[in-house]
Structure formats: C-alpha cells, structure tokens
Amino acid sequence: MGHRRRARAAGLREALLDALTSRRLVAAPALDDRADRVLLVASELATNALIHGLPPSVVRLLLADGCFVLDIADHDMQAFPQLRDVEPTDSGGRGLHLARQLSLDVGWYATVDAKHIWASFSAVTTTPEG
C-alpha cells in the first residue's frame, strides 16, 4: 500500500505542476517557489486524506479572487482536521502545520457527503518571455 500511495502522490505533484505552469499561474518552477509550496502542501494534505479519510479522495486546483485554492476532499464525515501538538521526535502530524506556514490561509468545510480541507496561495499571472 505504501508504494501505491507514493506513486499517487508523485502523479498528483506532476499533474499540479503541469496545471500551474501551463496556465501560467506561476513562473517556471526554477524561478518561483510557489510551485514548490503548492506541491508540498498538496502532498501533505492529500496524504492525510489517504491515510485518515475515506475514499474517494479528490484534489482540485481552483482560481478565485487573485488566489489559487488547493481543495482536497475525502468522505470520512466522522473525523475533522485539527492541529495537534507535535514533539520534535514525532514522525508525523506536521501536515497542517506545514500547510499553515507555506500558504496564505488554510481551512476546512463539510458538504453533505464530503469534508474538504483547503489552502490558498497568491496567484500571479506571468507573461511569456519574448
């Protein structure tokens, strides 16, 4: 199962990077650390959904009001995201902490059949070089 999760996470990062650069939401990855921040937060939050949530997990990248929003949903309506105290020697539990530090804002909401956790990032439209 661990191998499948890693493969899914790698595929997720690749698809998000393609969406970010092809839509010119960020500059080339070497020139803009937002892509790295989005990919790290997506990996952390999607991993949380896979480990702690119920399938299917859905990751969306939305653009609204000068921000792009990473929205990750799963279908476990019994457990909700919460920051927990983490000791330096703990091997996990840092996903939400990282998301809060690397994004503009983080939150969550529930619909009838899914819970969503989201993180927002500044959106910058770049112009083609030329």
Task: Walk me through what this model shows.
With 130 residues, the chain is of the alpha+beta class. The protein has 3 helices and 4 strands, in the order ααββαββ. It has helices spanning 2-22, 33-52, 95-102, and strands at 58-64, 67-74, 105-110, 115-122. The protein has a 4-stranded antiparallel sheet, with helices on one face. It is globular. The model has no long low-confidence stretch (mean pLDDT 80).
Q: List the secondary-structure elements in sequence, H or E.
A: HHEEHEE
Strand numbers in spatial order across the main sheet: 1-2-4-3
How many strands, which pairing sense, and closed or not: the largest β-sheet?
4 strands, antiparallel
Multimerization status:
single chain
Poorly predicted tracts of residues: none
Note the gap between the termini: 46 Å
Number of helices: 3
Strand content: 15-25%
Mean pLDDT: 80
Compute the CA-based radius of gyration.
Answer: 15 Å
Helix/strand-derived class? alpha+beta
Helical residue percent band: 25-40%
Count every beta strand, where a strand is a DSSP E run of 2 or more residues.
4
Shape: globular
